[in-house]
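*** Residues and shapes ***
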Amino acid sequence: MRPDYFDKYPTLVFERNGRGILTLRIHSDGGPAKYTMQHHGDWCGAFYDIGADPENRVVVITGTGDVFLDEWGQAEAFASPSEWDQAAFEGRRMIRNYLDIEVPIIAAVNGPATIHNEIAVMADIVIAADTATFQDKPHFPQKVPPGDGIQVIWEALLGINRARYFLLTGQILTAKEALDLGVVSEVLNPESLIPRAVEIAEQLADYPTLSLRMTKAVILQQLRRQMDERLTSSITLEGMAVMDMLTTHLRKKSNKYKDEIAKLKGQ
């Protein structure tokens, strides 16, 4: 029986086989994903639904075509602290709902993952096409603090010093570099990526459901604790910087109009 939530989210495609292996594919209008707030909201709800469905025994998450997530389809714009708070509320729930999926998650990173790549690298097993790259493009390169949980996962993966370099410089990691640093566990040619992800998922599906769930709970304790400790405060600090940029922009715009009015009065 096909669950109702499989048809609920416009930016996600769901497939599940008879062994409980759920494949989740991110897209935009059927093609490679271009990030919008619709994706953000869909992830928040979908991760909750996936975690609440006992028929899901292993999850595979991937992108569409040759891109995991690398472009914006519509730039995020926050006009007030209230609008930021809504996005932050959704962001906190999205991360926590992801971490509350009590079965193994395999990320098959099929290409560049530069926007919200925590969706990939928070997975329990991460494999990548040799065309994949990793970068934190939406944050410090855009003058935005990386406070939405991205800093927690990259510190865990790279260590504190390498993570600070990665986040502050906009460093781009190739698939090979990500493999050498332990971010991903396997690098394959693009044609082999999904078959390999399914192969690993089938291997995991051989284990009893309770073994899968309890093992996931054991290996995720530290990351969940770190997110609980840091996510709310760091996403608030991120919002302060975003609101400061908004205020500065509005002030400059206001001063420009004042100057134009003064020129008109002087004519």
Observations:
- The chain has one domain: 4-266.
- DSSP finds nine helices and ten strands in the chain.
- The domain at 4-266 is CATH 3.90.226.10 (2-enoyl-CoA Hydratase; Chain A, domain 1).
